[in-house]
Automatic annotation (TrEMBL):
Keyword Lipid metabolism among UniProt keywords: no
GO biological process per UniProt: transmembrane transport
Pfam families to which the protein is assigned, alphabetical: ABC_tran (PF00005)
Protein name, as recorded: Dipeptide/oligopeptide/nickel ABC transporter ATP-binding protein
Record keywords, A-Z: ATP-binding, Nucleotide-binding, Transport
The keyword ATP-binding appears for this protein: yes
SUPFAM superfamilies in UniProt: P-loop containing nucleoside triphosphate hydrolases (SSF52540)
Protein species of origin: Peribacillus muralis
GO function terms (MF aspect): ATP binding; ATP hydrolysis activity
InterPro entries: AAA+_ATPase, ABC_transp_ATP-bind, ABC_transporter-like_ATP-bd, ABC_transporter-like_CS, P-loop_NTPase
Signal peptide (residue range): none
SMART domains the record matches: AAA
Location of the ABC transporter domain: 4-250
Domain of life of the native organism: Bacteria
Length: 254
């Protein structure tokens, strides 16, 4: 059984055309799956549907074999802790009134009782926060700062630390590095790769950046106008029988 199994998803916003058209894919345990496609093709909509922020019109979202779509907030709670998100803009993901320490402990306070910790330990709040900061390669001293006292890269590392604090099985990464400069992007992606290995998580890695997806992911899906038009093992990216649209994307990075 796949960790996440997406079957025949359709989504139309009230305002217009169908944004997701019969989307099908699965993510296996410990796998990093890439999703690439040009701006406006529906990548973030798909992420929001998987996270149950947007309802789908048709189809099925199975997590560990259980249907999520249409479930009440109460029934979704155990799944929410297992499926975390790191989105494009870290500033909007962190509460500006909370110190880093308070932001980091918040998911554990909400969901900690449901978590069977395998990699982190909770001896004291202070020790827990220090473990999290160490995992995302930030100094302990940042625990007492507010978000506006952090750089963009540091903020994004704090959002990653929050996401991993409850040891989810899956993280949806929607352009996690796109607000950063090139060097910070590279080090953030390296960190994400190390954390996936260390904690045994799966990622859905959404990006415009084909070289980054190629570096991070074992498999890649290509989306065009709300449809998955190509899906393949990363090592087969340059195969002659790739979809013409995939070839077009490849040519943009040559
Ligand atoms: N809340 C909404 N209401 C109505 N239309 C929306 C909404 N959110 C997105 N859309 C539309 O749905 C389409 C897909 O948008 P989406 O944000 O999913 O694309 P994307 O591939 O993530 O783009 P980008 O890479 O630029 O973030 C676009 O045409 C967009 O205008």
């Amino acid at each position: 059984m796949s960790l996440l199994d997406i079957r025949n998803i359709h989504k139309t916003y009230y305002s217009g055309a169908e944004v997701l058209k019969n989307v099908n894919f699965s993510i296996e345990s410990k796998e990093c799956l890439g999703l690439i496609g040009e701006s406006g093709c529906g990548k973030s909509t798909l992420a929001r549907c998987l996270l149950q922020i947007e309802p789908i019109d048709e189809g099925s979202i199975l997590f560990n074999g259980r249907e999520l779509s249409g479930k009440s907030e109460r029934l979704l709670k155990p799944y929410r802790r297992n499926m975390q998100a790191v989105l494009q803009n870290p500033a909007s993901a962190l509460n500006p009134k909370l110190k880093v320490r308070e932001s980091l402990i918040d998911p554990f306070q909400q969901y900690g009782s449901q978590v069977d910790m395998k990699h982190l330990t909770y001896k004291s709040e202070r020790d827990f926060i220090e473990q999290l900061l160490e995992m995302v390669e930030l100094p302990k001293s940042l625990a007492e700062r507010y978000p506006h006292e952090l750089s963009g890269g540091q903020k994004q590392r704090v959002t990653i630390a929050r996401a991993i604090s409850i040891e989810p099985s899956l993280i949806i990464l929607d352009e996690p590095a796109s607000s950063l400069d090139v060097l910070s992007q590279a080090s953030l992606l390296t960190l994400l790769g190390k954390l996936r290995e260390r904690l045994g998580m799966s990622y859905l890695f959404i990006s415009h950046d084909l070289p980054a997806v190629q570096k991070m992911c074992q498999r890649i899906m290509v989306m065009k106008e709300g449809e998955i038009v190509d899906a393949f093992e990363t090592e087969l990216l340059l195969c002659a029988d790739r979809h013409p649209y995939t070839k077009e994307l490849i040519s943009l990075f040559d």
